[in-house]
TrEMBL record:
InterPro entries: CB, DNA_brk_join_enz, Integrase-like_cat_sf, Integrase_catalytic, Integrase_recombinase_N, Integrase_SAM-like_N, Phage_Integrase-like_Recomb. Coiled coil: none annotated. This is Phage integrase family protein. PANTHER family: DNA ADENINE METHYLTRANSFERASE, PHAGE_INTEGRASE DOMAIN-CONTAINING PROTEIN. Transmembrane segments: none annotated. It comes from Luminiphilus syltensis NOR5-1B. Keywords: DNA integration, DNA recombination, DNA-binding. SUPFAM superfamilies: DNA breaking-rejoining enzymes, lambda integrase-like, N-terminal domain. GO terms for molecular function: DNA binding. Residues 104-292 form the Tyr recombinase domain. Residues 1-78 form the Core-binding (CB) domain. The keyword Ion transport does not apply. GO terms for biological process: DNA integration; DNA recombination. The keyword DNA-binding applies.
């Protein structure tokens, strides 16, 4: 039954969403088995118990995500929305009071960090790919799976003559209205040089093996791994490891520091007003107003 439901999700949700749903429901199913419960017949009391179980080892935001996933899956299977039941609502309030709603933010990849990482990129195939990846992430401020979705065929020219990339789908554009994102001449030049090696077709970001062979499309998880390798090579102590989300946070902080409004930054990065990243930016902005 559940596999049939996940099969129906194909094409209706982004791959990352389906992957997250599968992972969260699998964890819920294991907990149900241990407690002699049927996951597809779970009640609000059951989901509240699962939330309390997760809260022993997980932060509040992780518990919230699991609860939302399970609620959505059961609702889409034609069952009651147990996530809105009083037991779940009260359980989450208790968890928030104990653990808070704070969510850890990515280490910012700001412009100075970008320059330090670019300095580690040589003229090899991997070095050129890395330059494209670094500038693409910083300039477009897109999520890692969106970065990996860009193709050479998405390159367009604006009326001004500048180059742009068309983002066909995103987390906030599930139906493909599309968006043109201008890019710098430097990035455009890097993409053109990279295209000479890859045939100017297919995905922009590709795997590059140790001997320099260019492979298939780069997995979103590969972005964080490569960023951390470059961070280590550059000897950058940033208070933590860079991640695929670091591009967005770092570029947003740079824009804020240059005087851009939060509204424009939200538009650039595709964030919603209630986003935790926007809350992070507001907090950072407020900290700059405090006299030392």
């Amino acid at each position: 039954m559940i596999e049939e439901l996940f099969a129906e999700f194909e094409g209706a949700f982004a791959e990352n969403t389906i992957r997250s749903y599968r992972s969260d429901f699998s964890r819920f199913s294991r907990w149900c088995d241990e407690n002699d419960l049927a996951p597809l017949d779970a009640t609000s009391e059951d989901l509240a118990g699962f939330a309390e179980y997760l809260a022993k080892t997980c932060v509040g935001s992780t518990v919230r995500r699991h609860v939302a996933s399970i609620s959505s899956i059961l609702k889409l299977s034609g069952r009651e929305d147990i996530g809105k039941g009083a037991p779940v609502v009260l359980a989450m309030k208790r968890i928030y009071r104990r653990k808070g709603r704070w969510q850890r933010q990515a280490i910012p990849l700001t412009h100075n960090v970008l320059q330090a990482l670019l300095a580690e990129c040589d003229d090899s195939h991997r070095g050129l790919r890395d330059r494209v990846m670094l500038r693409l992430g910083y300039e477009t401020m897109r999520r890692r799976h969106e970065l990996c979705s860009f193709r050479f065929e998405d390159l367009e020219q604006l009326p001004s003559g500048k180059a742009a990339l068309r983002l066909r789908f995103s987390k906030t554009d599930q139906y493909g209205a599309g968006k043109l994102i201008p890019i710098s001449e430097v990035l455009h030049g890097d993409i053109q040089r990279w295209g000479e090696l890859t045939g100017n077709t297919g995905y922009l970001l590709r795997r590059v093996y140790r001997k320099g062979e260019i492979g298939s499309d780069l997995h979103p998880g590969g972005i964080a791994r490569r960023l951390q390798e470059l961070q280590q090579q550059a000897g950058l102590e940033l208070g933590g490891k860079l991640s695929g989300h670091s591009f967005r946070v770092g570029a947003a902080l740079d824009l804020l520091e240059r005087g851009e409004s939060l509204e424009k930054i939200m538009l650039r990065g595709g964030w919603q007003a209630e986003s935790t990243v926007v809350a992070y930016l507001r907090s950072w902005q407020a900290s700059q107003d405090i006299e030392p």
